[in-house]
Amino acid sequence: MSWYSRELDKGFAGMIANTAIRNCDSYAVEEEKGLNPGDAVVLGTTENLVKKVDSGSESKVIGVVVHNHKEPSNPYYEKGDSVAIMSTGDIYVEVGEAVTAGDVACIMASTYKWGKTGTAVVGATYIKGAESGKLALLRLRNVTVEQGE
Q1: Which residues contact 43 (CB under 8 A, 6 or more apart)?
Q2: Which of 6-10, 32-36, 47-51, 63-67 has the lowest mean pLDDT?
Q3: Mind giving me the DSSP string for 3-42?
Q4: How much is the mean pLDDT over the chain?
Q5: Entry pTM
Q6: Angstrom distance (rounded) from CA 137 to CA 37
């Protein structure tokens, strides 16, 4: 009898997917509405702050919020919390529409969720697809560097 499954769970939003080379930088959450693992983020109004992508900032995404285990709250990361932001590597994200491997990752204008329509995130591609509301595997390639941030 085996205690271990032959198949791993798919993961959860913001989970680092594998041991591939990655870059994560630390920031603090700027806004009261906070952040959740897997959110796309942009730089905040002052140095070392980040906030969730919103109207007009879709083309300025610097990365994805990484999940770190902590006591759960809603939002998961509150204003002032320290967060790791991945700009290079493989990470799970929840998508707002069906995507397939090879699709360029975009920020959907209506919901600011990950998808394949909307504003393309430079250096971001899905390597495993998913149905709407499910987890896709996103590959980030130096998102911050490629945008000159």
Answers
A1: 49, 50, 60, 62, 149
A2: 6-10
A3: SS-SS-----TT-B-SSS--EEEEEEE-STT-B-TT-EEE
A4: 90
A5: 0.88
A6: 14
